[in-house]
């Protein structure tokens, strides 16, 4: 791993530690060793502690009295259902707003449909892609959903969607799906409705996509989880 740059030390350490968690280099539920991270990043423990405090607010680490920090565990079935419920509220609203903005022809400050179409496609796994292929899929999927939320024109809505994504990302890396073609088709249905300036259609397409994704992930949960 590259050393953290001194110019933007606090932010860079935050991004470096976040990447370790998001890539499962620090496994879900694993204790975070502050001194070891500081040595790895070639910094003092102070910016590592500051980064972990920020990551705690992001929900990516948890702090326990006398035990320090641990990486957040994978979602339980109940937490996953709550995540889906939140996404249904936020992301259908984002899709609807994008279509409304397209219909209003807001120009350069509106919705970049071409950019959405580019991000709607998802890379499929290859025989030798392994973990890297899974990570590429989840990252591209996140970019599509985050971009759609950004184009909604509602900053708080965009930020809320972005904050939800890491938890699903971690889950997908642990339990990868193989439905990239299906997901991409669902993405394009959303984009088609946005491009047509059809708020109801965009809302319905996003809702159908999120509910279908829910069904694809449910088999990975046990009855207890």
From TrEMBL:
Name listed for the protein in its UniProt record: DNA-binding transcriptional regulator, GntR family
Keyword terms: DNA-binding, Transcription, Transcription regulation
Pfam families xrefs: FCD, GntR
Top-level division of the source organism's lineage: Bacteria
Species the sequence originates in: Micromonospora pattaloongensis
PANTHER family named in the record: TRANSCRIPTIONAL REGULATOR, GNTR FAMILY, UXU OPERON TRANSCRIPTIONAL REGULATOR
One Gene Ontology MF term: DNA binding
Residue ranges annotated for the HTH gntR-type domain, each copy included: 7-74
Positions in coiled-coil regions: none
